[in-house]
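Postdoc handover notes: sequence design on the structure in folder B. Input tokens:
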């Protein structure tokens, strides 16, 4: 691992999976999420459950969580699992803020290659790649963004994007 900080004792480094292995673990995680949530309506309960079960099932997830919209142009850290997340992110700043502003999913193969403070906000130097997706309600309003980080470069791909978009649509849309 090429991280610049020592891993916290309670966090395991990411472990890569092939696309076929990813499909299997996502299917298992979605089944578990459906089973736990049933017809749950509370958004925060949904977020907590998604974080826990995805991080449990998917070994390359280092940090997983939601940033929720506060006001018209700011995200605030919501439910997550992992090391300390950024507390506030303005729309348009970093990957999460850019996704909130554009409404488009972003996959970053190497977060360390981005301009720190503008293109990427480094909350944990162990995070090397990430995927961030917008999260919307049925009426189309933005709840926030869903952010997943890995300690490995290039962890996220079209499989992650498709699986997570479908899951978020199913649970929140």
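Designed sequence:
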């Amino acid at each position: 691992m090429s991280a610049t900080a020592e891993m916290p004792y309670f966090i395991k480094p990411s472990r890569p999976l092939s696309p076929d292995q990813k499909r299997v673990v996502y299917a298992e995680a979605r089944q578990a999420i459906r089973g736990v949530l049933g017809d749950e309506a509370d958004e925060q309960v949904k977020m907590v459950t998604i974080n826990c079960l995805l991080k449990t099932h998917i070994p390359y997830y280092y940090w997983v969580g939601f940033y929720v919209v506060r006001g018209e142009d700011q995200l605030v850290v919501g439910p997550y699992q992992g090391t300390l997340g950024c507390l506030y992110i303005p729309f348009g700043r970093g990957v999460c803020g850019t996704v909130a502003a554009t409404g488009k999913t972003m996959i970053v193969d190497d977060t360390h290659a981005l301009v720190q403070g503008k293109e990427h906000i480094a909350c944990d130097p162990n995070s090397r790649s990430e995927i961030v997706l917008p999260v919307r309600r049925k009426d189309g309003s933005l709840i926030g963004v869903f952010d997943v980080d890995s300690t490995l470069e290039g962890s996220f791909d079209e499989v992650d994007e498709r699986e997570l978009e479908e899951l978020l649509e199913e649970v929140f849309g």
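Context for whoever picks this up: The beta strands are 63-70, 74-81, 88-90, 106-108, 129-136, 142-150. Don't rerun without checking with the PI first.
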